[in-house]
Each structure stands twice: as C-alpha cells, then as structure tokens.
Amino acid sequence: MDSAENYHNGNSLKSIIGRNILAIIISVAAAMAAYYSTVSSLEVSIASKTDLVQTTNIEKRLNIVENALEKNLISRDDFFRFREEVNYRLLKIELKLEDISKGETDVGKK
Questions:
Q1: Is residue 79 part of a domain?
Q2: Global pTM?
Q3: How do residues 11-41 score in pLDDT, each as one tens digit?
Q4: Number of domains observed in the structure of the chain
C-alpha cells in the first residue's frame, strides 16, 4: 500500500503543479493582453488628438490667409468680376481673329 499511496501522492502533486503552472500561464497571458490593449488605446487616443491639433492649425492658417487676401488684395466678388471681364475680352479677340482669318481665306479664293 505504501507504493500505491506514494504513486497517488505523486499524481496529485503533478496535477497541483500542472494546475498552478496553467494558472500562471493564463495570468501572464491576461496581463500581456491588458498591457497591449492599454498601449493600443493610448496610441489611438494620441493619434486622434494629433489629428485634431493638426486640423486646428490648418484652419488657423487658412483663416490668416483669407484675412490677408481680403486686406491686401481683391475681394472674391471682384476677382470673379475680373475673371468674367477677361473671358469676355478673350472671346471678343477670338471672334475678331476668326473674322480676320475668314477675310484672308475669302481674298485667297478670288
């Protein structure tokens, strides 16, 4: 009986050690998962704050440029009027050149 009792105690010792090792492995895995989860959430948080800061900086710069354009140059309405006037003049020049080229071809036919 003594050897059977030792065999039984050895098995229970192995199962206790096995359970403890399994518990330690699971605990380490859980700690690693929590660590990586925390790190990734911090990275996402930092990235979103960085995007917000960059967007705010770009908006500030655009506002500065808009104010400088309004103060130092022409307004948007003036620019569009100028553009339409230039397009109108270019169209007149184009029509005149077409008339001139038609006149030259008519002279060449006679």
A1: yes
A2: 0.36
A3: 677 788 888 888 888 888 888 888 888 877 7
A4: 1
